[in-house]
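Hello,

Our lab assistant flagged a job as stuck in the queue for most of the afternoon. It eventually completed. Since we weren't sure the result was trustworthy after the delay, we are filing this so someone can double-check. Below is the sequence as submitted and the structure that was eventually returned. Let us know if re-running is recommended.
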Amino acid sequence: MSVQERKERERAGRERLIVATARELAEQQGWDAVTTRRLAERIEYSQPVLYSHFRGKREIIGAVALEGAAEMAGALRAATSATATDEPRARVVALARAYLDFAADNPAVYDAMFQLDGGLAFAEEDTPEPLKDAFAAFLETLGEVAGDGVHPALFTELFWACLHGLATLTRAGRLPPEDSERRVQLLVDRLAVV
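-- returned structure --
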């Protein structure tokens, strides 16, 4: 291995450590607790080293969001492929449950993805690939239940917006958690054409 390859590997390792540490700190104490000073202390590097990887907290949030988008896409695909039936409705229910579970299990990552400014473009030409792939994971399942004459991507946006609202309102304590399954069933029954 060349010196350059070793340096690149070490740099990538530091970057992963910064992102993992920010994510861990945010999950434990919230995003307000994530500062470059605290991150530098936790990873035992100086703040200038941290700034050599990220210009600030906004870019760190963006990196966590991209990592989360990749994980969410994987979770959605795993849930829909694990469905024992070829029935589109069952895949949509599995997708909805997987999304809501991901949001509940990863609140700081979910905030980085959808609530905080990570400097990422959504639904633009320069949207990063992990975000495009997360949307594609929705579209793969939801496109087949959009209905005649309905643009699959537009339907996917609407369905995703409904799931985001359910996730956000449930987490904020605005919706009783015991009715979560009934909400998923109602959403699928009313929106998905199967």
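-- support follow-up --
The delay was a queue issue, not a problem with the job. The result is valid. The two ends are 55 Å apart (CA to CA). Residues 123 and 132 are 8 Å apart (CA to CA).
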